[in-house]
Design goal:
mainly alpha, 9 helices, globular
């Protein structure tokens, strides 16, 4: 939904990751200033993360709180700068380069097409892996804004804010992903619906809308390991 809100087909990859390569960017001073600020914030995130790991910052409650608070601030600055950089870029380019083939701007068709593409991509990945003798296990991970997946704590609500387009995509999309995942499983794919893995967890798990603290990673890893051992063919 976020891509459609940006004026791009939902079937295209993430615009911030490839759009500038496709159209060559915008070179006026203001745009370059915004791009530079965004890149500087990204570099600060990388530097701070390396230092925090080097000096074991995440090993203490105080260190973790400080590091996450600073990283969230830097992430917000980077996103704002990149979005501001993108506005003149979108205005400067028309045609199919950024927009893609015709698409609906209504929520349900967007969700339907995106979910179907997700399933088709999974079938393709499975086929590629099978041809190489690689065991393929498809896991649908949980996300904070999937209704009923977890009762969010106050801390999770504070750090889990996302644009309305993202939230709408989750609310409409996750039921479709579960249904399509079941269809993939019926057709022989090793699919695991782990979107409910935190349903009975009452502690703080999320550090943003879709990433977890260490204990959350352990819970999800245990679920994946159990399913892997059940489904992995005997050798």
């Amino acid at each position: 939904m976020d891509k459609v809100a940006r004026g791009t087909s939902q079937l295209y990859p993430s615009i911030p990751h490839w759009g500038s390569l496709a159209i060559g960017g915008v070179a006026d001073r203001d745009a370059l200033d915004h791009a530079a600020r965004g890149r500087a914030a990204q570099q600060s995130i990388e530097t701070m993360t390396r230092r925090a790991l080097k000096y074991h910052g995440p090993w203490t409650a105080l260190g973790t709180t400080f590091v996450l608070r600073r990283l969230n601030t830097l992430s917000g600055e980077a996103c704002n700068s990149v979005e501001t950089y993108w506005k003149p870029m979108r205005a400067a380019v028309g045609g199919m380069v950024l927009r893609g083939p015709p698409f609906s701007t209504d929520a349900d068709p967007i969700s339907e097409a995106s979910s179907r593409m997700w399933a088709e991509c999974s079938r393709s990945m499975r086929s590629i892996c099978e041809q190489r003798g690689i065991f393929y296990l498809h896991v649908l991970q949980p996300t904070l804004h999937d209704p009923g997946a977890k009762v969010a704590t106050k801390k999770e609500i504070a750090v889990g804010g996302i644009p309305d387009t993202w939230k709408r995509g989750i609310v409409l999309g996750y039921p479709r992903l579960r249904a399509l995942g079941a269809e993939l499983a019926r057709n022989g794919e090793n699919f695991v619906d782990a979107s409910d893995v935190f349903r009975d967890v009452t502690t703080t798990i999320y550090i943003d809308n879709c990433h977890f603290r260490e204990d959350g990673n352990v819970i999800l890893a245990d679920r994946i390991t159990d399913e892997f051992l059940k489904k992995y063919p005997a050798r």
